[in-house]
Amino acid sequence: MVEHMPKDVLPIEVTTADAVIIGAGPAGLCCALKLAEQGYRICVVERQAERSIAEPEFDGREIALTHRSVQTLQRIGVWARIAAEEISPLENALVMTGRSPHRLHFDRQNAASGALGFLVPNQSIRRAAHQQAAANPRIQLMYERQVADVLTTPPGVNVRLSPHGAVQARLLIAADSRFSDTRRAVGIAADMLDFGKTMLVCRMRHAVAHEQTAWEWFQERGTLALLPLNDRTSSVVITVPAAEARRLMEIAPQEFERDVEARFDRRLGAMQLCSSRHSYPLVAAYARRFATERCALIGDAAVGMHPVTAHGFNLGLQSLERLAAEIGRAAAAGLDIGSLSVLRRYEAAHHRGARPLYLATNAVVRLYTDSRPLHTLVRTVGLRLADRLPPFKRAIVASLTDVAG
Q1: How far apart are alpha carbons 241 and 257 in whole angstroms?
Q2: Distances (CA, A) of 148 to 47, 165, 173
Q3: What CA–CA distance (Å, rounded) separates 327 from 94?
């Protein structure tokens, strides 16, 4: 007996690909470019409209890129699409705590690579990655769609989309944020760590030159960060309780400027707000698994970092490099790129690279945001001793710049 489809029900449009990536953020698009470079057909599914991805608005976030990350972006063609004036070299860094005169200072002399790193607006990376992906014939971009359900079978994975459509592929890659719906859809849990604080970010001009120096200043009122951009402009990052962040978001620009000047002890002179203000809750995430049958997690879907070490996106690029490397080895050996044995090797490699950094970052945040006297003494003494140990400083700089990977 043949069942006839009702006239008002349309057949599902099915797209086939080697891999389907959920999330057209920088990690997802860069992963698509990396795999397309290896000859695979990639479908990228994004819930936002095309315009939001192609022409992203300023969101306040400046991304600190290591040398290794720059090399990755160069290889996949993204770096060449970022305008030179949007790239700010980072030549020095200061770590300070409270009113202590002791500080930890890193400069170019501690690095074997010149600049410690490079600051690039998040929107610039997103725009460049989209331009490069949209120009690649092996990559199909699907907008205003989200995952409805995932069906895994021995030969592949079937991803049904909402409001319509489906994708059949050998491999599903989740790159849809630290709050990933795809991660949940495939049954992978994540440990979430809510720091109970909110990060406010904006750009400000200031009278005193920053000398391309980044600041991380831990205070009782909250944590301050200064990321030096070109000219006498910096990205200001203020980490405070949610109620204080709301107040800072709502007060008049002139009142905000005077408030920030005071927080920086007027060390930068007069400060002028020159962008919109944005706030983000600080929540870290670490997936309990990075892979399951025919599915791998990359970027923030695998590990969502606290921004204090500025390694979130760098770690995301490392995740896709590790995944692409394992896929390349599997293909060379004639193996199924979506098999669990292949994805487990990626999982093990990324755990080794990510977990120590994740735990160390969270430990630093706890130590430097705890106002109890013992913690204050430990961090003050620690900064003083660390600044007097050149080998230690060189090791830290090598880790931060990540020249050799």
Answers
A1: 19
A2: 11, 10, 15
A3: 40
Per-residue pLDDT of the chain (405 residues; tens, 9 = 90+): 333 334 443 457 899 999 999 999 999 999 999 999 999 999 999 999 999 999 999 999 999 999 999 999 999 999 999 999 999 999 988 888 776 666 677 776 555 556 889 999 999 999 999 999 999 999 999 999 999 999 998 889 999 999 999 999 999 999 999 999 999 999 999 999 999 999 999 999 999 999 999 988 887 778 899 999 988 999 999 999 999 999 999 999 999 999 999 999 999 999 999 999 999 999 999 999 999 999 999 999 999 998 876 788 999 999 999 999 999 999 999 999 999 999 999 999 999 999 998 988 888 777 656 555 544 555 555 555 555 555 544 555 555 556 444
Domain ranges of the chain: 14-192+283-401
Does the domain made of 14-192+283-401 have the CATH classification 3.40.50.720? no
Q: In what order do the strands lie in the sheet with 14-16?
A: 14-16, 166-169, 156-162, 146-153
Pairing state of beta strands 62-65 and 117-121? antiparallel
Cα separation of 133 and 123, whole Å? 15
pTM: predicted TM-score of the whole model, two decimal places: 0.88
CB contact at 8 A, 182 and 22: yes
Residue pair 92/213 in contact by the 8 Å Cβ criterion: yes
50-56 own/partner pairs: CB under 8 Å, 24+ apart:
50/141, 50/143, 50/144, 53/24, 53/126, 53/130, 53/141, 53/143, 54/127, 54/130, 54/131, 54/134, 55/127, 56/122, 56/123, 56/126, 56/127
CB atoms within 10 A of CB 99: 9
